[in-house]
């Protein structure tokens, strides 16, 4: 323990020897009748008079702040403040201690704190306070005597004691002191230009496998020598935007000839395969982002970019990575995309920071939100953190169990006291029961009351939230889309790190080889592990993993031996057997069946596509698309970065009868298997069912269509008929297109829209509305069938119904096909034409011939199609075309 000494040195000891000794040693001097002085690094400093006695104060959890900047000594935070445009303004220092303990519990202990600029004798600011046992202590300093400028500073403390191992102060004679630096903010400096980057793992780190904790190295080369008095930091994030590691380099010399920086990212968590982002900052100002792909090899593929203030990486590096409020969601899983959404909302919500700086009142808004997750643990915690993350301006937080609320004799109590509160509701499904209707109505009344400031968050599964919003259109309108937060299935990296965090709660630790084995097995069984909740990881660690460790130790124990403790708490690779645990829990079969199901649907759809006649170019394009979809889904489930996710709406162009509806059905099956569509069937409708006599009616019909098409493929044939070139606004087809756009912009709408029709009209429609065009990234063209392909379609159609074309009939049928192709126009129906020719022409002619013949009934008679049957069909079809009789073409929506 370092104690303030009672002995003093007087200034009358001014012999050369004493002066030299004071210079060589940091020494204090404090006569009772004059100012105290002390020497430090060759300079004598003056300590103003203040109350002193023999009492001393112990403290815990100290935070040192200047304005909005702060650091906690002893916790690895750099002792630095950065001045920019605020330099010269009277910003204040403050020192907060979580708890103080006076050496005399019944008395108050005097303390004094001073801020010095190195080399200047008098303090810039001071604070004298009396500390009381058992209380937190906020110590605000006087205004600065002169503006802060870049350089070295220190905090001097008198009346404190700082205990041993985790001491944050250093002794300075009779005092304690804490050095820190003030540096120029990177906002006002020219940032360096990155020329080259290399990322690697040391070879020795890979000895027990590539997927282990440890070190990743990054070397950054710049185009010019690095300036002095600068801090360079690198923050390494996982693809889920979780801060994995950080490193700092500080240049404080007089001159620098360095062109490069070498960072070391040390992580206790396993380096999983995937994408990592490193944000480089220059005096706390983000200026570049480095992205590297780690695949277990010593060298990683690297790219980098310059950052602007509008980039998400800039926001994370500047404000959120080390923000204490955002640290509360650091270990949440399933929040990769959600963290970026919340960061963007936080940026929009920072308006109140400007109001505070300008001494204006806060802008208070009643915020209504919903958190959707199958994992109640993280859902409730996220809901609890939202007011801090998004600057709600509320003064308190309250969680309400709706099931208990329902049983409460006075359910309106908390509603009456809701002013200023951020309220989270869970077990919300009871609001839709008969008994819960009254509570839901009370809740709606509270939401409608805009005169009382409060915030509300519904917390539940997606099904529960959707159910409540369906029961309450008012709540559905109040909870805007940007405030609906869905936690996704965790990535494979989050699964592995969840295992490690559960193990950290015990005294056991994974060996490097065990870490690699855990990572590999997590990838193998991810489709089951990704559905686990927090308790499942804890149960596996305590009963599965540690159970095997104890069995191994007991099996290898030699009676009378004294094994070392460290050997008893190591988890080895042989102890990690996730498959056996899942087998014992009955989960492996479900995992295997789900994987096989996905592969089976893909293979079946591929076979069905291959069975379609012709369309070779289209098949190749669709095979590539199908493979890409499955490939991206498997990468996503493994936690690897995916280029594009979500629904990709499609455009099919081509003449009628070329297989567009069939391919749309195959897309629905695959999208359903991938979890992008909840049902995957193809639905159809007609223009007359959608276009009303007035605008409101059209919108209502479109809303009804969207409800019916939820989870389905909405196939729109000849969609351009809804958006004519006419400027007549009485044609409400325009409103149908306008109603489509909001649904198309949703990232996961649970609906696939297919626009189909003639190429020219489709292209003209898309060009007329750029917003519509951008929502359809996939375009597939269905070419007309040739004679060989139409003949193959005819044979396939007849074979399915056990009909046989005799050779003479087949020759004549081909002649009919060639004549039809010779005279076809753009409305030629291709496969639909040949099927109609057979079903409406050839087979009726065959039936008349057989029934009029009076011959003995044989299989050949009822199966074989003769030349006469084809001739009769050709005459019938010519008569139909000559008379002008044809089925009217339907416009609008059809399959």
UniProtKB/TrEMBL annotation:
InterPro entries: AAA+_ATPase, ATPase_AAA_core, CbxX/CfxQ, CbxX/CfxQ_RuBisCO_ESX, P-loop_NTPase
Protein name per UniProt: AAA family ATPase
Gene3D superfamilies, per the entry: 1.10.8.60, P-loop containing nucleotide triphosphate hydrolases
Family of the protein in this entry: Belongs to the CbxX/CfxQ family.
Single annotated GO MF: ATP hydrolysis activity
Keywords from the named record: ATP-binding, Nucleotide-binding
Domain (AAA+ ATPase): residue spans on this chain: 646-786
The species this protein was found in: Candidatus Bacteroides avicola
């Amino acid at each position: 323990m370092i104690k303030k000494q009672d002995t003093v040195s007087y200034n009358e000891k001014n012999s050369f020897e004493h002066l030299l000794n004071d210079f060589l040693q940091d020494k204090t001097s404090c006569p009772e009748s004059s100012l105290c002085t002390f020497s430090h690094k060759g300079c004598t400093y003056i300590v103003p008079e203040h109350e002193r006695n023999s009492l001393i104060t112990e403290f815990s959890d100290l935070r040192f702040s200047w304005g909005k900047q702060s650091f906690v000594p002893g916790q690895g935070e750099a002792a630095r403040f950065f001045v920019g445009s605020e330099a010269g303004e009277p910003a204040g220092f403050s020192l907060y201690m979580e708890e103080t303990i006076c050496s005399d519990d019944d008395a108050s202990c005097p303390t004094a704190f001073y801020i010095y600029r190195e080399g200047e004798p008098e303090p810039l600011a001071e604070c004298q306070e009396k500390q009381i046992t058992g209380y937190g202590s906020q110590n605000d300093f006087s205004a600065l005597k002169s503006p802060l400028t870049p350089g070295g500073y220190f905090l001097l403390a008198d009346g404190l004691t700082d205990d041993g191992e985790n001491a944050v102060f250093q002794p300075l004679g009779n005092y304690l002191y804490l050095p820190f630096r003030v540096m120029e903010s990177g906002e006002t400096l020219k940032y360096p230009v990155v020329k080259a980057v290399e990322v690697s793992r040391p070879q020795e780190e890979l000895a027990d496998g590539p997927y282990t904790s440890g070190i990743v190295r990054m070397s950054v080369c710049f185009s010019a020598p690095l300036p002095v008095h600068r801090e360079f930091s690198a923050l390494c994030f996982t693809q889920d935007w979780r801060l994995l590691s950080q490193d700092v380099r500080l240049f404080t010399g007089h001159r620098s000839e360095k062109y490069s920086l070498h960072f070391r990212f040390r992580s206790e968590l396993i380096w999983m395969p995937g994408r990592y982002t490193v944000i480089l900052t220059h005096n706390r100002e983000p200026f570049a982002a480095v992205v590297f792909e780690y695949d277990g090899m010593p060298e990683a593929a690297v790219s980098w970019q310059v950052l602007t203030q509008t980039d998400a990486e800039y926001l994370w590096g500047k404000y959120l990575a080390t923000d204490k409020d955002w640290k509360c969601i650091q270990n949440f899983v399933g929040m990769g995309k959600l963290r970026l959404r919340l960061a963007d909302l936080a940026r929009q919500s920072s308006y109140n920071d400007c109001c505070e700086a300008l001494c204006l009142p806060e802008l208070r808004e009643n915020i209504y939100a919903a958190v959707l997750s199958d994992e109640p643990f993280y859902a409730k915690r996220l809901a609890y953190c939202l007011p801090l993350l998004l600057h709600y301006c509320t003064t308190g937080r309250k969680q309400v169990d709706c099931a208990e609320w329902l049983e409460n004799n006075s359910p309106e109590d908390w509603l009456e006291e809701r002013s200023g509160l951020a309220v989270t509701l869970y077990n919300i499904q009871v609001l839709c029961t008969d008994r819960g209707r009254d509570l839901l109505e009370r809740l709606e009344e509270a939401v409608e009351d805009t005169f009382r400031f409060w915030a509300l968050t519904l917390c539940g599964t997606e099904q529960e939230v959707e159910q409540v919003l369906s029961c309450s259109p008012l709540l559905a309108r109040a909870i805007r889309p940007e405030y609906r937060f869905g936690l996704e299935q965790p990535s494979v990296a989050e699964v592995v790190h969840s295992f490690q965090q559960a193990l950290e709660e015990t005294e056991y630790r994974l060996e490097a080889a065990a870490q690699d084995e855990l990572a590999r097995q997590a990838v193998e069984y991810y489709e089951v592990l990704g559905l686990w909740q927090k308790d499942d990881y804890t149960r596996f660690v305590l009963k599965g993993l540690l159970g095997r460790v104890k069995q191994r130790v007991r099996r290898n124990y030699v009676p009378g031996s004294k094994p070392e403790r460290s050997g008893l708490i190591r988890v080895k690779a042989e102890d990690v057997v996730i498959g056996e645990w899942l087998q014992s829990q009955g989960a492996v079969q479900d995992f295997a069946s789900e994987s096989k199901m996905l592969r089976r649907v893909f293979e079946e759809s591929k076979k069905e596509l291959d069975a379609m006649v012709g369309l070779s170019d289209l098949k190749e394009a669709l095979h590539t698309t199908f493979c890409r979809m499955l490939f991206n889904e498997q990468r996503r489930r493994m936690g690897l970065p995916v280029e594009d996710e979500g629904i990709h709406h499609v455009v099919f162009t081509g003449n009628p009868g070329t297989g567009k509806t069939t391919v749309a059905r195959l897309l629905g099956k695959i999208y359903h298997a991938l979890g992008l569509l909840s049902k995957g069937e193809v639905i159809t409708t007609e223009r007359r069912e959608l276009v009303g006599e007035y605008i409101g009616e059209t919108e209502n019909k479109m809303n009804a269509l969207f409800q019916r098409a939820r989870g389905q493929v909405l196939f729109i044939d000849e969609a351009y008929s809804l958006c004519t070139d006419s400027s007549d606004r009485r044609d409400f087809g325009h409103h149908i297109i306008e109603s489509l756009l909001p649904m198309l912009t949703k990232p996961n709408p649970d609906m696939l829209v297919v626009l189909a029709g003639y190429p020219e009209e489709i292209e003209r429609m898309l060009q007329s509305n750029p917003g519509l065009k951008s929502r359809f990234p996939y375009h597939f063209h269905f070419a007309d069938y040739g004679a060989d392909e139409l003949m193959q379609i005819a044979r396939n159609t007849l074979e399915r119904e056990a009909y046989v074309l005799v050779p003479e009939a087949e020759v004549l049928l081909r002649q009919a096909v060639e004549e039809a192709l010779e005279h076809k126009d753009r409305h030629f129906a291709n496969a639909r034409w040949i099927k109609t020719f057979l079903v409406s022409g050839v087979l009726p002619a065959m039936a008349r011939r057989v029934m009029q013949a009076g011959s003995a009934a044989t299989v050949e008679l009822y199966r074989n199609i003769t030349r006469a049957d084809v001739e009769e069909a050709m005459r019938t079809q010519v008569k139909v075309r000559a008379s002008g009789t044809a089925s009217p073409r339907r416009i609008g929506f059809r399959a």
